[in-house]
Design goal:
This protein is α/β, with parallel strands linked by helices. Helix content is 55%, strand content 9%. The structure holds adenosine-5'-triphosphate (ATP) and (4-amino-2-methylpyrimidin-5-yl)methyl dihydrogen phosphate. Its EC number is 2.7.1.49, 2.7.4.7.
Length: 547
């Protein structure tokens, strides 16, 4: 059953307010505001209407386009783009596609009269500030949209003459391609890609940017319209766009091509975002500059989405999402993932492999322990500072106990080992704080006395987390203490379940702190964590560099 046979358009008139005519066929055309020039005669003068026409509420933007169920193109991309630009999105759906990131498998076109009823219902009730037009699959649909635009005359009309999806599948019947030409009279800006530009000027697709601009000029002059010539289909590293005015003026925006396969829906997103921004900017060149910057970032961040196996969508909301509070576990998981190279490097260090196999020289271990003792003394103060800043009593207790343990338990372990090996290591104990230790401690103290609670916790966390992880990974690899492992007792203290539990608690505390704070603080927390993780790596390697 198709859409048109399920509900007859004539049996479901929109429940319009009593002052508004209901049946689509008898709708009175909305008179064009007298100050608004008609699109076909003076399109370029739209860039300077009086400031009193700029609405303060979010622009009400209607997308007349096809549905892409995978969410990357069509109506779905338009809703996201309009919203990302601060507009209020409305939709009238011209076609339903069976589509994913790999291609279009089928197209269903609802009755054109049903589309007509939707458009009339909207314009009878809502002031529409801008219209974006996308996939118009048949000549019938184009006629309905053309008639409606002719009556309602929205102040901003952007026509994206969609013909072929980026997958190569056709979205428009052959005879509809030429019918699109007539629709140009109702648009203020048309945004063809290079193959579509060729069709609109009746020439083969341009093979260079220069010939694309010439085609754009011919189209703009012939139809008295602004043309956006888009460089997304050019070969090479560059991806320019250019606005060509009806009198031949060209405003070109340079841009580098972003290396991503996720370009599904760039044309839809660009055109609907432009329609939205234009309502307030009233200047196509300004609108393009703002939208291209946003789209470039949306392409840059598209890999974050991980949608589908084919040509994926752009990340319309990268900006909103980068400042939104992260989901539980997400912040600390990202810190952990980002420091994967440091973690891998730790396991490669001769100090670690020799420590585990018991072949590490006592001189290196003694230097390490002596530096660690100095480090732990400062670390204890920083943990106490975390306790001081802690927002809850539980967290305060956790950090204070950590501060106590750093001084007592771990230092006694050091004293024990050094007392059994007193002779050669006396020098090590007396040694000054080494450069690597000092560097690490300075970083911790800076976080402790100039940073937020989150920064302090982020700075101290790698010591917990990396030690617990090293102990967990290496525990099965070493011979047991019964086998006379020279560093067995020391290793056991970090492989202990109580230490692993403390590390997990510290991770959880940081995650909660990250969710409670703002994006700028989260950024500083991430930097503090990454810096400490690198310091941990350097600290393990310091004995080798010292000798
Ligand atoms: N890889 C890319 N890097 C940077 N910008 C790009 C890239 N691909 C497309 N764009 C930009 O996206 C917008 C759409 O360009 P394009 O020429 O691809 O249109 P389109 O073919 O209509 O888009 P669609 O892929 O949705 O059909 C333009 O502003 C273009 O510069
Ligand atoms: C419903 C619909 N409208 C437009 C496009 C074009 O977008 P793209 O060229 O990126 O596939 C599409 N694929 N589907």
């Amino acid at each position: 059953m198709n859409g048109s046979s399920m509900i007859s358009p004539t049996t479901t008139p929109a429940p319009a307010p009593s002052s508004t005519p209901t049946p689509a066929s008898t709708l009175t055309p909305a008179p064009a505001p007298s100050s608004t020039p008609t699109p076909s005669n003076v399109p370029s003068s739209r860039s300077v209407p009086s400031s009193s026409s700029v609405p303060s509420a979010p622009p009400r933007v209607l997308s007349i386009a096809g549905s892409d169920p995978s969410g990357g193109a069509g109506i779905q991309a338009d809703i996201k783009s309009i919203s990302a630009m601060g507009g209020y999105a409305m939709t009238a759906i011209t076609a339903l596609t069976v589509q994913n990131t790999q291609g279009v498998q089928s197209v269903h076109v609802p009755d054109a009269a049903f589309l007509s009823a939707q458009l009339d219902s909207l314009s009878a009730d809502i002031e529409i500030d801008a219209v974006k037009i996308g996939m118009l699959p048949t000549a019938d649909v184009i006629r309905v949209v053309g008639e409606w635009l002719g009556r309602v005359r929205p102040a901003v009309v952007v026509l994206d003459p969609v013909m072929v999806a980026s997958s190569g599948d056709s979205l428009v019947e052959q005879d509809a391609r030429l019918a699109l030409l007539e629709l140009l009279d109702h648009a203020h800006l048309v945004t063809p890609n290079l193959p579509e530009l060729g069709v609109l000027v009746g020439e083969p697709e341009a093979q260079s940017w220069e010939s694309a601009l010439l085609q754009g000029k011919r189209l703009a002059a012939r139809r008295g319209i602004q043309v956006l010539v888009k460089g997304g289909h050019l070969t090479g590293d560059e991806c320019p766009d250019a606005l060509v005015g009806p009198h031949g003026a060209v405003t070109e925006l340079a841009g580098m091509k972003i290396l991503t396969g996720n370009t599904h829906g760039t044309g839809c997103s660009l055109s609907s975002a432009l329609a939205t921004v234009q309502v307030r900017s009233l200047d196509w060149a300004l609108s393009l500059r703002q939208v291209k910057e946003w789209l470039t970032q949306a392409l840059e961040h598209s890999d974050d989405l991980q949608v589908g196996k084919g040509r994926g969508p752009v990340n319309h909301f990268y900006s909103l999402w980068s400042t939104a509070s992260p989901l539980p576990g997400a912040f600390t998981q990202k810190l952990w993932d980002d420091c994967a190279p440091v973690r891998a490097a730790i396991f490669e260090l001769p100090f670690i492999t020799e420590l585990v196999h018991g072949s590490l020289t006592e001189a290196h271990f003694a230097y390490y322990l002596a530096q660690d003792a100095k480090y732990l003394n400062a670390y204890s103060r920083v943990l106490a500072r975390a306790g001081e800043l802690a927002p809850t009593e539980n967290e305060q207790r956790f950090w204070m106990e950590g501060a106590h343990n750093a001084l007592e338990v771990e230092l006694s372990l050091h004293r024990d080992w050094l007392s059994v090996h007193p002779v050669d290591q006396a020098d090590a104990i007396r040694a000054e704080m080494g450069p690597v230790t000092k560097h690490y401690v300075d970083h911790l103290l800076a976080a402790a006395f100039a940073g937020s609670y989150g920064e302090v916790v982020a700075a101290v966390l790698p010591c917990y987390w990396l030690y617990a992880d090293v102990a967990r990974v290496l525990a099965p690899e070493r011979p047991g203490i019964d086998g006379g492992h020279p560093y067995g007792r020391w290793l056991d203290s970090y492989a202990d379940e109580a230490f692993a539990t403390s590390a997990r608690t510290a991770v959880e505390i940081l995650d909660v702190a990250a969710r409670r704070t703002n994006a700028a603080d989260r950024q500083r927390m991430a930097s503090a964590f990454a810096y400490s993780a690198q310091c941990e790596l350097d600290f393990f390697d310091a004995p080798r560099l010292h000798s």
